[in-house]
Structures are given as C-alpha cells and as structure tokens.
Write a structure and sequence with these properties.
This protein is of the alpha/beta class and 316 residues long. It folds into two domains: 194 residues, Rossmann fold, CATH 3.40.50.720; 110 residues, UDP-galactose 4-epimerase, domain 1, CATH 3.90.25.10. It contains eleven helices and 14 strands. The protein is globular and about 55 Å long. The structure holds serine (SER). The site of serine has 11 residues, from loops.
Length: 316
C-alpha cells in the first residue's frame, strides 16, 4: 500500500499536488506536512501534520513510524528570498534532502520526488532552447543549492539505487495559493492587480523572457514522472521541462485582450539580474522521450483561466 508524505504542503506547488494525489490515491494515503501550525482550509480533506524539514529526528521518526513509502520534499526558499538569507537557504534546501535520501538508502522509503529549477542554469548557459546537458554555472544561492541537490540525487541513485526523481520547474502560475519569494512571481501577481483594476508595477523589464508553466501542467508532469516505470527514468539528476515562454510585455498584451484598460509599468529591481542569468526557453526532449511529457496549456488558455479564478481580495 502506498503512503505518501508531502513536506512543504502549504506552498504553491504543495497545495495542488496534495489535492491531485489525494484524488488519485485516496485522501488518507496522502499526508500533508508543513511547518505552519494550522492546516490550510484547502487541505482539510485529509491528514495534516506539523513538520519542520530541518528537524531531522522528527522527520525520521514520523516517516518510519507511519511507514511512508513515498516522499515529495517541497520545502525550500526560492530565488529572491534565498539571496536575502543565503546561509539559511542553503541549510533548508540541502539538509532536508539529505534526511530523505538517507532514509531511502536505509530502505524506509521507496520513491522520492525532489524539485529542481531553471535556476540551476547561469549566465554562461545557452539561453535559448537550453539543452538538458549544458554548461551549468548558477549565480544565485537558490541555483547553487538546486544544482548541488541534483548532483546528490544522481549520486544516491548511482551508489545506492535510491529511486529519486526530479524536474527542473520553470516559473509556475496558479491561483489556489500565492507564490512567495520567486523571481517568476510577477507572472502571478500581475493577475491580481489586473483584476483589481490597478496599474501593475513589474519588477522585471518588459523584454525579460523566462520559461513558465501553468500549474496543472506542472502537477500532471510531476505525477506522470513519479508513476512512470523505473527503467524509463534515464535522468537521475533532474529533467528539463518546458511549457510556455513569455516576456512581461507579451503577458500584459494577452491580459489586455480581456481587460483593455489594463496598464503595466516597469521598475526592475534586484530580481532583474537573477532573471537575466536564467534561460529564456527550455529544451525538454529528454522528458518527452523518456516518459512521454507533453504540455497542454498555451499562454492564451493560462491567461483566460487565471483571470477567471484569481481572488483579488487575497492581495493588497
Ligand atoms: N519560480 C522559481 C523562482 O523564481 C524558479 O524555480 O525562484
């Protein structure tokens, strides 16, 4: 019987992943875990436990006692926040991973999902149609931690046969919970401001193209990767994954098709340098070939859904 633990369940990916996995596996088989003392309303249809990813002993005890078979380890600081708190970001992004990899090595867990990011690439990486295997010299704390994590995942697979799987997520766009601390977050915030009828001040410049993806595609990719037969998973560092790539100006133009009054202004801040070091578009042939990945949501559809569903009362 599969028993799944999602650490970092209250975040942008976690919330939707828990709900999708519960639909697939049954509510009681999927335990949501987060450092937040309160279970978010959206996740009240199944078990919730308060866990700090850095509390190694408590995490170990819980996983062993509850006979958890799969762990999705999502707790992390994202790119912009990590720049402000480098040492804590390194600790959080790495220590939890070691705890889980070790548990799998000892035979307590059968399968691990660990998210990586386009942030593993850096200024020396080819920026257009970035290949799976290429120069990787990340220049952010977040990117350094994700790249190191990828190396450790591959190492634990090669040395100890740990079945760990990973995706290099692009910027993720969703409306069920707010993102926090990312360089791609503007592409979510913009919908709240547009719906409030306000002018949007974008922290990236108008032509900063970045790889992005509608959350439903990202969740489907994650589950498809985790459900694929082991032999099909050839990349044990992390898979490139591509959805839609656009600039703030292109996104604004698409929003204007629905809200002709919408206005945007550009006020780049420190996040501009982070965006400039990342790819503009991603080549994901390996994911397509190995486990049949294909995105469903183009820019137009994503914009339509976001404008319909975001709740403008969630932001000031
Ligand atoms: N969305 C993330 C960030 O901007 C990238 O993985 O930090």
């Amino acid at each position: 019987m599969e028993k799944i633990l999602i650490i970092g369940s209250s975040g942008q990916i976690g919330t939707e992943l828990v709900l999708s996995l519960r639909k697939l596996k049954g509510n009681d088989q999927v335990i949501a875990a987060d450092i937040k003392p309160e279970c978010p309303d959206a996740l009240k249809n199944g078990p919730y436990v308060v866990l700090n990813a850095l509390d190694r002993e408590k995490v170990r005890r819980f996983i062993i006692d509850e006979q958890i078979t799969q762990v999705y380890l999502l707790a992390a600081l994202l790119s912009a926040t990590a720049e402000k708190n480098p040492h804590f970001a390194w600790e959080l992004n790495m220590e939890g991973l070691f705890t889980i990899l070790e548990l799998a090595k000892e035979g307590h867990i059968q399968k691990i999902f660990w998210p990586s990011s386009i942030a593993v690439f850096g200024p020396t990486t080819p920026r257009v149609n970035t290949p799976q295997y290429t120069v990787m010299e990340p220049s952010t704390v977040y990117g350094i931690s994700k790249q190191a994590g990828e190396r450790w995942c591959e190492y634990y697979f090669n040395k100890f046969g740990v079945d760990v799987r990973s995706i290099r997520y692009p910027g993720l766009i969703s409306y069920t919970s707010l993102p926090g601390g990312g360089t791609t977050d503007y592409a979510v915030d913009i919908f709240y401001q547009a719906k409030k009828g306000r002018k949007f001040s974008c922290f990236l410049s108008e032509n900063s193209g970045l790889p992005m993806m509608y959350m439903e595609d990202a969740i489907r990719a994650t589950i498809e990767l985790m459900e694929a037969p082991k032999e099909q998973i050839k990349v044990r560092s992390s898979y490139n994954l591509s959805g839609i790539s656009f600039t703030p100006a292109e996104l604004a133009a698409e929003i204007k098709k629905h809200l002709p009054q919408f206005e945007i202004e550009y006020a780049p801040d420190f996040r501009q340098a982070i965006a400039d070091s990342w790819p503009q578009s991603i080549n994901d042939d390996a994911a397509r070939m190995d486990w049949g990945w294909k995105e469903k949501y183009p820019l137009s559809k994503m914009v339509e859904i976001m404008l319909e569903h975001v709740n403008p009362d969630w932001v000031q």
